Backbone:
């Protein structure tokens, strides 16, 4: 094979699209439409769904947030099926109680059965072996009679977690004692657990302590019930509802009576009540008819409890137990216990109780909130029992008017009833709050709950919304606690957005700013609550753009001063705004200025330690703002982009968006403003692109900006961008970091270069330059110093593209043009000197491709060598002058080389032969080259 083959391009008068093609079965751009037919096998689909559930687990960090919202996710106006499932609803409520009522105080536990707490004598007596039944009965009676406090020990200074752990240990001790036939011992442990509920030395933990202890008592009751059931029915799985006392064996009845007598022998009222309630289900083995009267008796016996906090939670335990046994039939007991609570309501405010919670440094509202879970649960069952909710609400509101200090009851009533009922009685509720405002410590909770209900009103017509708003504002603005004020403001501002005018909303925002300033506390202490208020406004105001026209909105947003709070506030406003505003343009200068102010706050928060996701999120918000901001005057729009470039230099994503926006502006101004605007836009892009950190992005934008300038007939600006592009190509890395992963750039660079070479066809030469095809010659020289391996597909593919361009540039008329741009075919008219220069370039490129073929052979890259030889052969056939012996000889040698290297998949070679054989000139060519 000769060492050099001078290239001579063929001159073509007509352009034919005889391109080698491959047969395909589908169009490459056609989207595959998948049609999914629902399966009739529902069991299979459900099993697959259950199998995938573990993979859909929430982020562990979000699980706690979901748990905190559990209480809010329990609407009281639920469907009938869920009403009966009290156990499911109570389990959800338990989670919210355990999360809410926590303490950092030290706790105390009293027991004789925890490890290390028993005396040796007592322990040895407990494990004493018995031989016969008489001794066994006698031993149990001795244990019951010997139930004194001598062996009981007090463990003090426990943290909350340590207390929970020890309660769980007591539960395990009950199971161990039961399994080892020491049932009286298990009974004693349960009694000692119930006694823990008489201790209110740490009141703020009492609701959670009740949950923990009640679970232990439920487990003990289940052990007794299961044993009695096994004694009577063996291993049959019979539910409580189907047990008939007449079919119960006598031994089971005697055992049941034995347990009830043991329970009745407890001297203290509280543990006796708890144990009787825990064993309530066991009465079914004696008489089912006596169970409901027993519940009524226990309801009245609780009156004997002197501590109202202890009393209301034992009422909750009684109602829970009855609902497990009787489901819907238990709802009257909820109503009875609620009535008992209301009758004893004033005990909550007894001086003794006030002294106790004062000694624990609890505020009045913290103390009253301890009762809220219990009252809510009693109201839950009462509402399910009484279907005439409106009359029940009137009755309860009447009692609130009659009794003193009714705020606890009022708050629970407002949160328990459905929105439609509360909305109808909203005026009456506000009157009650207004009359008792001076002494109410839970007024913020009552107003907040009422506001939440009013937010569900489609159109409030009972009383003027302005009157309601004025009333709540007078009450809220008089609050001393800023946190309470903001808690009330959050739902009521939503009500104002839904029902009132923008002027009214603006007045509320002004008042809010005055309140926060006069409060004397830094607004930064309440930034999270202020942010929630602003989020409510943004989500519910009908026209979100109108919000920025209010003179009080932006001052409220910027009221916080710390950098972190301001940044969080700005991100929240921008995020919610763009979620709601779907318009493609915003042309109000006030709105644009406000959004830009927020974007600057977000941008200025980015620093060297900012994580990638934070920068990406900030960039997306700012880019969205740039995309929608529009000015009718193009000069003003360009000045706006200039200001954006100066303000947002830290974020590449924003600079990229600005370059795209200015290029778009350049095309918009082509017809209306003349050449100066287009040149200004081209200069803007040329100055902005070097600021980008990503070399690949720089190269892409240089190409785009040059193409736009060329389209606008700004030849000098286009040439400058293309020269800059040629200069950065060697600096493009092989990999770029995107989304935390390294991604190769070869495919993107190949597309970029192909696009660039296609553009060079229509770019006219600079007449002041002594070099022909100035930009292209510079690119060819650049390829010599690019750090690509010669065997890389990117390298030799680029050479093939350059060869295609050089052959096309030798033609008398190019395949395409840009209007008003004089390309080289018109500029040179295919003069001999110009064509000779291009063919010299082509000769060098062809020689380099032969060098690549040799390198591929040395590297044993057979497939690449085969493909490249056919690619070069095809270009010689279609673009070279085969009348020249050097060209025909090169084509023949390349064909023979490809036949020696022929791959098992020879479709490309066959398609080339098929095209040539279909044309008479092609057949002559094949005979001349002796190709078979």
Residues:
């Amino acid at each position: 094979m000769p060492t050099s083959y001078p290239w001579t391009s063929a001159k073509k008068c007509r352009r034919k699209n005889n391109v080698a093609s491959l047969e395909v079965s589908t169009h490459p751009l056609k989207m595959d439409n998948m049609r999914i037919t629902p399966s009739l096998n529902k069991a299979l689909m459900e099993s697959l769904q259950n199998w995938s559930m573990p993979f859909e687990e929430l982020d562990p960090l979000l699980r706690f947030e979901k748990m905190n919202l559990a209480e809010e996710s329990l609407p009281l106006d639920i469907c009938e099926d869920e009403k009966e499932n009290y156990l499911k609803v109570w389990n959800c409520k338990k989670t919210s109680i355990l999360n809410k009522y926590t303490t950092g105080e030290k706790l105390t536990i009293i027991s004789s059965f925890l490890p290390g707490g028993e005396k040796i004598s007592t322990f040895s007596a407990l494990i004493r072996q018995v031989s016969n039944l008489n001794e066994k009965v006698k031993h149990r009676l001795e244990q019951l009679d010997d139930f004194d406090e001598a062996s009981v020990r007090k463990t003090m200074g426990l943290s909350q977690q340590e207390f929970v752990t020890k309660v769980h240990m007591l539960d395990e001790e009950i199971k161990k004692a039961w399994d080892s036939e020491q049932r009286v011992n298990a009974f004693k442990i349960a009694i000692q657990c119930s006694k823990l509920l008489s201790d209110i030395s740490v009141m703020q933990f009492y609701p959670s302590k009740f949950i923990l202890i009640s679970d232990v008592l439920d487990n003990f009751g289940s052990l007794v019930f299961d044993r009695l059931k096994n004694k009577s029915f063996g291993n049959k799985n019979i539910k409580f509802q189907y047990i008939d006392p007449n079919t119960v064996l006598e031994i089971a009845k005697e055992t049941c009576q034995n347990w009830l007598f043991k329970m009745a022998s407890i001297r203290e009222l509280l543990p006796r009540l708890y144990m009787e309630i825990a064993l309530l289900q066991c009465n079914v083995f004696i008489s089912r008819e006596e169970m409901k009267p027993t519940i009524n008796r226990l309801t009245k016996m609780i009156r004997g409890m002197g501590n109202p906090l202890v009393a209301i939670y034992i009422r909750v335990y009684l109602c829970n137990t009855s609902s497990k046994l009787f489901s819907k039939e238990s709802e009257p007991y909820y109503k009875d216990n609620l009535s008992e609570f209301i009758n004893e309501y004033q005990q909550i405010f007894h001086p003794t109780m006030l002294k106790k919670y004062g000694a624990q440094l609890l505020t009045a509202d913290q103390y009253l909130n301890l009762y809220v879970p219990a009252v809510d649960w009693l109201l839950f069952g009462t509402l399910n029992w009484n279907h005439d909710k409106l009359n029940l609400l009137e009755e309860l509101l009447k009692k609130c008017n009659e009794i003193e200090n009714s705020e606890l009851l009022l708050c629970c009533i407002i949160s328990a009833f459905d929105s439609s009922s509360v909305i109808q009685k909203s005026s009456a509720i506000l009157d009650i709050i207004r009359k008792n405002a001076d002494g109410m410590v839970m007024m913020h909770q009552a107003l907040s709950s009422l506001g939440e209900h009013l937010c569900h009103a489609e159109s409030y017509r009972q009383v003027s919304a302005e009157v309601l708003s004025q009333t709540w504002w007078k009450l809220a603005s008089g609050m001393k606690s800023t946190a309470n004020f903001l808690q009330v403001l959050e739902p009521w501002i939503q009500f104002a957005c839904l029902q009132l005018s923008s002027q009214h909303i603006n007045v509320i925002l002004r008042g809010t700013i005055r309140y926060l300033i006069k409060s004397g506390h830094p607004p930064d202490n309440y930034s999270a609550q202020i942010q929630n208020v602003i989020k409510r406004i943004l989500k519910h105001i009908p026209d979100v753009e109108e919000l920025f026209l209010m003179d009080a909105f932006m001052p409220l947003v910027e009221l916080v001063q710390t950098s972190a709070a301001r940044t969080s506030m700005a991100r929240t406003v921008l995020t919610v705004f763009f979620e709601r505003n779907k318009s493609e343009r915003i042309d109000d200068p006030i709105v644009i200025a406000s959004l830009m102010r927020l974007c600057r706050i977000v941008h200025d928060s980015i620093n060297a330690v900012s994580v990638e996701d934070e920068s990406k999120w900030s960039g997306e918000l700012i880019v969205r703002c740039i995309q929608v901001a529009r000015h009718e005057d193009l000069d003003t729009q360009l000045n706006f982009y200039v200001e954006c470039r100066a303000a947002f230099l830290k974020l590449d994503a924003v600079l990229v968006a600005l370059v795209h926006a200015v290029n778009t502006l350049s095309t918009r101004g082509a017809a209306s403003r003349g050449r100066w605007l287009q040149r200004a836009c081209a200069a803007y892009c040329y100055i902005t692109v070097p600021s980008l950190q990503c070399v690949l992005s720089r190269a892409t934008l240089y190409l785009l900006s040059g193409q736009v300038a060329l389209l606008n007939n700004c030849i000098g600006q286009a040439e400058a961008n293309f020269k800059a592009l040629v200069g950065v190509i060697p600096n493009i890395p092989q990999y770029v970091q995107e989304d935390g992963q390294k991604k190769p750039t070869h495919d993107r660079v190949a597309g970029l270069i192909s696009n660039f070479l296609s553009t060079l066809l229509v770019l006219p030469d600079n007449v002041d330059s002594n070099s022909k095809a100035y930009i292209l010659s510079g690119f060819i020289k650049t390829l010599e110093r690019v750090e690509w391996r010669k065997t890389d597909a990117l390298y030799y593919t680029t050479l093939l593209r350059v060869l295609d361009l050089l052959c096309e540039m030798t033609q008398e008329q190019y395949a395409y043009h840009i209007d008003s741009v004089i390309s080289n075919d018109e500029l040179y008219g295919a003069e001999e000197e110009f064509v000779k220069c291009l063919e010299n370039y082509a000769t060098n490129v062809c020689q380099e491709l032969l060098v690549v073929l040799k390198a591929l052979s040395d590297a044993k890259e057979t497939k690449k060598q085969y493909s490249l030889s056919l690619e070069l052969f095809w270009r010689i056939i279609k673009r070279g002058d085969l009348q020249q012996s050097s060209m025909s000889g090169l084509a023949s040698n390349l064909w023979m080389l490809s036949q020696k290297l022929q791959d098992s998949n020879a479709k490309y070679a066959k398609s080339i032969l098929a095209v040539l054989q279909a044309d008479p000139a092609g057949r002559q060519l094949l005979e001349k080259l002796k190709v078979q």
Strands lie at 107-111, 153-158, 735-738, 741-744. Residues 733-859 form one domain. The longest helix spans residues 206-233. Residues 512 and 556 are 8 Å apart (CA to CA).
